[in-house]
Write a structure and sequence with these properties.
The complex is a heterodimer. Helix content of chain A is about 75%, strand content about 5%. By secondary structure, chain A is mainly alpha-helical. In chain A, α6 crosses α7. The relative contact order of chain A is 0.20. Chain B is mainly alpha-helical. Chain B has a domain at about 30-255. Chain B has helices at about 10-35, 35-60, 70-85, 85-95, 100-105, 110-130, 135-155, 160, 175-195, 200-210, 210-215, 220-245, 255-270, 275-290, 310-325, 340-345, 355. In chain B, α2 packs parallel to α9 (about 175-195) and α13 crosses α14. Classes of the chains: A mainly alpha, B mainly alpha. The interface of A and B includes residues 36, 111 and 275 of A.
Chain lengths: ~300, ~350
C-alpha cells in the first residue's frame, strides 16, 4: 500500500469516524443524565433521515430548509419519546427502563416499516455534496469533508454550552446527583428534556449526514450505526463528550483501516466494534476517558 | 375431600399427578388430531417456552440483563443441524465452497447432536460469562448483544463451516411434537427444581441485592456464571429444536429481533415467574399467528387498506411498552402457580382444616 492509498483510506475513515462521533455524543449526553442506554437513539437517527427525505420529496422544500425542519422535528420527537416512554419509569428498576427503551426502539422500527414502507428509498443528495475534488492525489467527496467540520463545530458549541452556560451547569449538576440538583432548585425534567432535544437533534444531523454519505433510507438503517455509536461512546468513556468523539474516531478509523489493510476480513467488519468493546470493557471498564468526571454531562 | 383419612399422598401430589396424566393424554390426543398447520404452531409454543424460561432464568431470577439469546440459539441450531445432516445433503447445500473435510462425513443421531449443540452453546456462554459478568447491568446488556452480533457475523462469513448467508436447507424434520413438548416439560421441571433449590435461592438473593448476597457468603460471580451457562445451554437446545422444526436456517434468523421476541414473552409473563413465561409463551405464539391478518388487507367498513406488512409487530412492540409502563409485573409478577393459589382464588376447594393448621 503506497502512501497515497493510505491517505485516501485515512480520509474516508476519518470522515466515518467523525460521523460515529456525532451520533455517540447524543448517546453519551443522555446516558450521562439518565444513566439510560437510549436504545431508540439509532431509530431517532433513522427518523431524522426520513423527515429530511420527505421534506425534500413530498413537501418540495429546498434542501437546507428540509434539513432544518427535520432536525427541529426530530428534536421535538425525541423529547416526546422521553416523556412517553422513559419519564414514567424514571424511579423504576433499571431493567424496566431498559426494556422500555428496547420496546421504543422496536416500536419505531416497526412503525417506520408501516409508515415509510420496508422498501429502501433513495435519498436525494444535493449537487453540492455529491461532487468530488482531488487534493494531493486523494479523492475527497465534499460530504466527507463536511462531516468532520460539522462534528467539530458541534463539539465546540456543546463544550461551550456545557461549561459556560446555566443550562450546561444544570446538566452537569443533574448528571452528578439528581437529588442534590433538585434540592438546588434545578428543574430536572426540563434539563432531561433539553438533553433529549439536543441528543435527538444530533441524531437527526447524523442521520442526514449518513444519508448524504450512503444515500439509501431503510426503516432498519439505524440499528447498526446505533449500536456502533453506543459502543464508541462506551469505548471513549460514557458520559464524557470528548470521550465520545475519541471513541467514534477510533472506531471509524479501526474499522476502515483494518479492512483496507486486511481485505480478507471485510465480511467481519461489523464485528470489530463489538470485539473492541469487550476488550475495552475488560481492560478499562470506565472507557478511555472515563475518569474525567469534569467532562460529565 | 376427606382429609381425616390418612392418605399416603398429599393433596398437592395427587393433584399434580392427575394433572400430569391429563396433560399426557391431552398431548396424545393433540398429536393424533391436530392438522399440520395447528401442529406447527403447537410445536412452536413448546420451543418458545424453552426460550422464555431460559431467558427468564438469567434476566428474571439472577437479575442480569442479557440480550444475547439469539446468539446462543444460533450456536445450538447450527451445531445440531451440521451434525445431523447427511453427507449427501451437505454436498447439495455447500455449493459455493465445499464444507471442511472433517465435517463432511459426520452424521450422528438427533439426540446426541441436540445435546452437543446445547453443550457448545453452554460452553460459549460460560466463556462469555467469565469475561463479561463482572460488568454492570447496562454494560452487560450491550456486551451480550454485541456477542450475539459477533456470532451472526461469524456464521455469515465462515462459508466452509456454516455455508454463510446461504444457510442450511433440507434439514430432517426431527422436531416432532413429543420432542418439542417433551423437552419443554423436562426443562420446565428442571427449572422449577433449580429455582426451589439452594442455587435458585442464591440466584434470587443476587438479583435482590448483590452486596447482601455476597456478605452472606454467596459466591456471586460463580453463581452468575452458572446461571448464565445453564441459560445458554437451554437456549442452544431450543435452537437445535428450532432448526429441525423449520428445516431451514440462515444467519438472518438470529438477528437481535429474535431476542426481542423472547424478551416480549418474558416481560408479558412476568420477569421472575416461570409460570408466567410458560403461559405467555403459549399465548404470544398463538397470538403472533392469529394476528397475521393485521399484515394483510384490512376492512374497517368505512376504511379499507390493501395490507400493511409490519402492523402486527407494531402491535406487539406497543404492547410491550404499555406493559412495561403500566403493569411492570406483567401477567404473574414474581408469583408462581401452585395448587394453594388456585384454592385461594376459589377455583379449588380449600385444603382441609388439618393441613391448614399445619401452617404453610
Amino acid at each position: 500500500m503506497d502512501f497515497q492509498t493510505f491517505l485516501q483510506q485515512f480520509v474516508n475513515a476519518f470522515s466515518l469516524g467523525s460521523l460515529y462521533a456525532l451520533i455517540a455524543i447524543g448517546y453519551t449526553m443522555v446516558y450521562g443524565i439518565l444513566r439510560l442506554i437510549n436504545f431508540a437513539h439509532g431509530d431517532i437517527f433513522m427518523v431524522g433521515g426520513y423527515l429530511a427525505f420527505y421534506g425534500v420529496s413530498a413537501f418540495l422544500m429546498p434542501w437546507w430548509l428540509a434539513v432544518i425542519v427535520a432536525i427541529a422535528l426530530t428534536a421535538i420527537f425525541g423529547v416526546g419519546l422521553e416523556r412517553v416512554a422513559y419519564r414514567p419509569l424514571r424511579d423504576s428498576p433499571r431493567i424496566s427502563i431498559m426494556i422500555s427503551a428496547i420496546g421504543a426502539s422496536f416500536l419505531l422500527e416497526n412503525l417506520a416499516i408501516v409508515l415509510f414502507g420496508a422498501r429502501p428509498k433513495a435519498f436525494p443528495v444535493p449537487e453540492f455534496f455529491a461532487t468530488n475534488f482531488v487534493l494531493g492525489g486523494v479523492h475527497i467527496a465534499t460530504v466527507s469533508l463536511v462531516i468532520p467540520v460539522v462534528t467539530a463545530v458541534i463539539l465546540a458549541v456543546l463544550i461551550w454550552m456545557v461549561h459556560s452556560t446555566r443550562v450546561g451547569m444544570a446538566m452537569r449538576a443533574v448528571s452528578t446527583d439528581v437529588e442534590a440538583a433538585r434540592l438546588m432548585a434545578i428543574d430536572v425534567n426540563r434539563i432531561v428534556s433539553i438533553t433529549f432535544a439536543i441528543g435527538s437533534a444530533l441524531a437527526a444531523i447524523g442521520g442526514i449526514m449518513w444519508a448524504l454519505k450512503y444515500p439509501r433510507l431503510e426503516p432498519l438503517m439505524g440499528i447498526m450505526p446505533g449500536l456502533k455509536c453506543f459502543i464508541a461512546a462506551v469505548i471513549g468513556g460514557i458520559g464524557s463528550i470528548g470521550g465520545a468523539v475519541l471513541g467514534g474516531l477510533l472506531l471509524g478509523i479501526i474499522e476502515l483501516m483494518t479492512v483496507a489493510f486486511l481485505p480478507e476480513l471485510t465480511g467481519y467488519k461489523d464485528a470489530f466494534a463489538f470485539v473492541l468493546l469487550i476488550i475495552v470493557l475488560l481492560v478499562k471498564p470506565t472507557g478511555l476517558l472515563g475518569k474525567n468526571q469534569g467532562e460529565k454531562v | 375431600m376427606n382429609t381425616l383419612k390418612k392418605s399416603p399422598m398429599s393433596r398437592d401430589a395427587k393433584l399434580t399427578l392427575s394433572a400430569a396424566i391429563i396433560g399426557l393424554i391431552l398431548l396424545f390426543i393433540f398429536d393424533q388430531s391436530f392438522d399440520r398447520f395447528t401442529m406447527q404452531i403447537f410445536k412452536l409454543c413448546a420451543i418458545n417456552i424453552i426460550l422464555a424460561l431460559s431467558l427468564n432464568l438469567i434476566n428474571g431470577f439472577t437479575g442480569l440483563f442479557s440480550l444475547g439469546h439469539a446468539g446462543f440459539m444460533a450456536v445450538g441450531a447450527y451445531t445440531c443441524a451440521i451434525l445431523t445432516m447427511s453427507p449427501e445433503q451437505k454436498e447439495v447445500n455447500f455449493i459455493l465452497q465445499p464444507i471442511v473435510p472433517w465435517l463432511a462425513q459426520v452424521q450422528i443421531p438427533f439426540a446426541p447432536a441436540l445435546l452437543l449443540g446445547g453443550m457448545l452453546a453452554g460452553f460459549i456462554g460460560w466463556v462469555l460469562g467469565v469475561i463479561t459478568l463482572r460488568l454492570r447491568d447496562d454494560y452487560l446488556a450491550i456486551a451480550t448483544l454485541g456477542f450475539s452480533e459477533i456470532i451472526r457475523v461469524v456464521l455469515t462469513n465462515a462459508q466452509t463451516v456454516t455455508n454463510g448467508s446461504l444457510g442450511l436447507k433440507g434439514l430432517p424434520r426431527f422436531t416432532t411434537m413429543w420432542w418439542s413438548w417433551g423437552m419443554a416439560i423436562l426443562i420446565t421441571v428442571f427449572l422449577v427444581l433449580l429455582i426451589k433449590s439452594s442455587y435458585g435461592r442464591a440466584f434470587k438473593a443476587i438479583r435482590d441485592n448483590e452486596i447482601a448476597a455476597e456478605s452472606m457468603g454467596i459466591n456471586v460471580l460463580g453463581l452468575k456464571v452458572m446461571s448464565f451457562t445453564i441459560s445458554s445451554f437451554l437456549a442452544g437446545i431450543a435452537g437445535g429444536l428450532l432448526a429441525h422444526y423449520l428445516t431451514t436456517i440462515d444467519p438472518k434468523q438470529f438477528i437481535f429481533l429474535k431476542t426481542f421476541d423472547i424478551l416480549l414473552i418474558v416481560v408479558l409473563g412476568g420477569v421472575g415467574s416461570l409460570t408466567g413465561s410458560v403461559v405467555a409463551a403459549i399465548v404470544v405464539t398463538i397470538a403472533m399467528e392469529a394476528l397475521r391478518f393485521l399484515d394483510g388487507p384490512l376492512n374497517f367498513g368505512f376504511y379499507a387498506t390493501t395490507g400493511i406488512p409490519g402492523l402486527r409487530m407494531v402491535f406487539f412492540s406497543a404492547l410491550l411498552m404499555i406493559v412495561v409502563i403500566y403493569r411492570q409485573q406483567g401477567l404473574m409478577g414474581k408469583a408462581e402457580f401452585s395448587w394453594d393459589a388456585l384454592s385461594r382464588i376459589g377455583l379449588l376447594p380449600r385444603r382441609g382444616a388439618k393441613a391448614a393448621k399445619g401452617g404453610r
